[in-house]
């Protein structure tokens, strides 16, 4: 690192202050938020959201100016927002704004997980039943294609990391290809490659190019666009055992299907894609934030697509503990 960049990094570290620095060092904290009123909040894996301190508007403004400089940008009244990766270990993602867009300096720091929470951790946190844990471990070993569905802040990526950890434990020699827009997936496997999109190479291009490198499993951090078509086709043609996440406003089985169909329509407008979804996708796991916990609310096998009924044949996995897990009824969705 050059002398100038080192000076900027040191300045960022100082201006973050002791509260934010401590939160960045805590492996169980996933997000840090500076609100425009100066209050600092953190999102903790097991404790949820809590206020941990405050800083002055002047300190917040100085911090955002230094972060902007590290990104080769300026943050001004005419350009009041910045996004990028923080020049610190782990390169956490940041988004920040200043007045007049906000009433005061505002910053959100999303950390890349430094600790992988295992399926056992989810059971210990009462977010997953032991029976569901056993089923998911079997699903990983049987190379089922799994889609994790949830809303913003539901913990989709963190749970995907737990499933990827199971691959590393149960199938340590499998060659994993991990594709992301921003680096959030954590992998302890001995045999993996990690690729990130760029202006020159889209997610769709990454999925297609990955097929030339002999992957056993293809993992996409979050499928957001027409790359859903290439991903499902790869899962359906000899690359079973993949994992991806999908954002759905309504965290439900129906919401997951609707979102996937919408993304496939972006790739192939006017086509019927139910058959591909029914063949390529084996399992949908829904996750929600409820109170201070993130709960696995359903696990559903996708059996096939029924064109006569224009619906999916599914089978809900029995997980017991009805107060913890909301179960979908077996049937057409």
Quick structural gist:
This protein folds into two domains: 3-110, Beta-Lactamase (2-Layer Sandwich); 119-332, Rossmann fold.
> Could you give me the name of the CATH homologous superfamily of the largest domain?
P-loop containing nucleotide triphosphate hydrolases
Oligomer: single chain
CATH class (first level) name of the largest domain: Alpha Beta
Largest sheet: 9 strands, mixed
Q: Assign the CATH architecture of the largest domain.
A: 3-Layer(aba) Sandwich
The shape is: globular
User: Into which percentage range does the β-strand content fall?
Assistant: 25-35%
Total number of domains = 2
Question: How much is the radius of gyration in Å?
Answer: 21 Å
Distance, first to last CA:
54 Å
What is the helix content?
25-40%
- How do the SSEs run, as a string of H and E? HEEEHEEEHHEHEEHEHEHHEEEE
Number of strands: 15
Give the neighbour order of strands across the main sheet: 9-8-10-11-7-12-13-14-15
Please state the structural category: alpha/beta
